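Example A, followed by Example B.
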Amino acid sequence: MAISKRKKAQYRRIAVYLLSVAALVAVALVVDWGQLQRAMFRWDIVVDQFPHILTGAAKNTVIFTIFGFAGGLSFGLLFALMRLSTIRPYRWFAATYIEIFRGVPLLVTLLILGFGIPIATGWHWPNPYVQGAVPLALVASAYMAETIRAGIEAVPKGQMEAARSLGMSYSRAMVTIIIPQALRIIVPPLTNEFVLLIKDTSLISVLGVTEGTRDLARFGRDGVNHTANATPLIVAGLVYLAMTIPLTQLVAWMERRAKAESR
């Protein structure tokens, strides 16, 4: 008797579940949990991380993220409008900028702007916050520009035509009619970009930060060097999760709400 496709799929799911459970049981039996706990989660070291990790490292991570996001959003809107411009040189310049900063890894951008330009010109960054936030903003703006452009193009063309028929200039119609509608569309992806920026701040430590501007990743790494234990990195990871999980849930809620409104 032939087995139906539905039954085959059901049997495959059961096999996957059984293999997963078997793998978990094998890991549970093989791992030395006591040694793992001593090496990666010593409670005395956890307690010692607070409140410094919140008042210092987490605060700095938030500052880098906010500066990077604000700059990225501002430049992203500018380059999105340039990409949509009828002036060809503007479109070419914006497209070139976007392709460069989307194609070059953030780490390389940080090193070029943080070390390369000062070495080549003799100019120095005014403070570590600006040195870290500017590369974040430039890279984020390239991604945000494409997101904003897609949001603007998603607004029905009739909206612009109606605004122009009422005597509005193109720029006024864009600012008062089109962009506000586009923002409703692009809020979820922009929130995702904010989450990515929170995690990308961990790369800023390659520039060498001061004691007062350490981010979470640098704080955890310094803690490992000081304690010869991985617990500080685990704590830093948990603080990252405490910041990013509410935002990812907010994005999921906004997407569900948008789908419900579109029905």
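Example B, a separate protein, is given below in the same form.
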Amino acid sequence: MQKGENSMVSLKDISAACGVSIATVSKALNHHTDISEETRANVLRVANEMGYYPNSAAKALKTNRTHNIGVLFVDNAQSGLTHDFFAYILNSFKESAEARGYDLTFINSNKTRPNKMSYLAHAKYRGFDGVCIACVNFYDPEVIELVRSDIPIVTIDHMFNNRTSILSDNVKGMRDLLTYVYGKGHRRIAYIHGEENSAVTHSRLSSFFRTADELGLTIPDDYIKETPYRSTKETEQRTAELLDLPEPPTCILYPDDFSAFGGMNAITERGLSVPGDVSIAGYDGIRIARHIEPQLTTIRQDTQRMGREAANELIELIEHPKTTLVKQIIVEGSVYEGGTVKDIRA
């Protein structure tokens, strides 16, 4: 059934082979839902057997879309896609976007962009149908310029009033985590949080203090420390400072699971054990934290759903701009109990 190498397979060829109209073939190839699944599957099978490959340039001219989505991901810690939380989200985003016929292109940092283009200029230069923004300084003037443009945008873990955003429920997550630790009998609870200029940090920190107040906990100023996210070196230093206090905490909360490893190092270097002497808890639920002993107590975030929601919402904004509502989708996580918080109620 396959045509020769120099012969281009057309929709008309597929139509004749399947015994359906050209319009039906087009709908099947573009994943329209107003034809039967059986017809769509048959058309896709025949098209594949005939060696049909849509011409992306011709498709762009016809639909006024390139089927290319830009991803703006600028990690100040330079951990890139080794940043477990965002790596899992973006992998889910990629799978969902590709399933709907879209390719992804990362937007370069200003050090490598052609002619040092702004993010907006680069997005237009590449002809992106839309842009997903994750793990950036959302207060960067270039990011704000991009958000204010007419390009469809979805943000992850940051909210703009006029843009769809996919948000981890950091308020509930921190409330659940602190309540869990409190339920294990801990009253001297310290919190090493991420950078103050992060919206995620603000949500978690506010929830921490509010929940502590509701539980009747007094949190000394010395129990609150700041460190960059994913910095094991700095969390190790902050943990050492907490252990040096006249009345050190019995439990320490960390900004993320990776940072918690630095805290564990500081504790064990003192000849102390986790959780025998000091309890700890992280945040995110990265896989590696479930492969250490004891397993890390943490908030496990639903990265699979966050990536899927981000991709689907962005594509809806691209394909149905007049009828798709701007919304904020909040995705809940759950406490993963692990084994690093000791029950001291006895």
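On Example B: Residues 1-6 have pLDDT under 50 and may be disordered.
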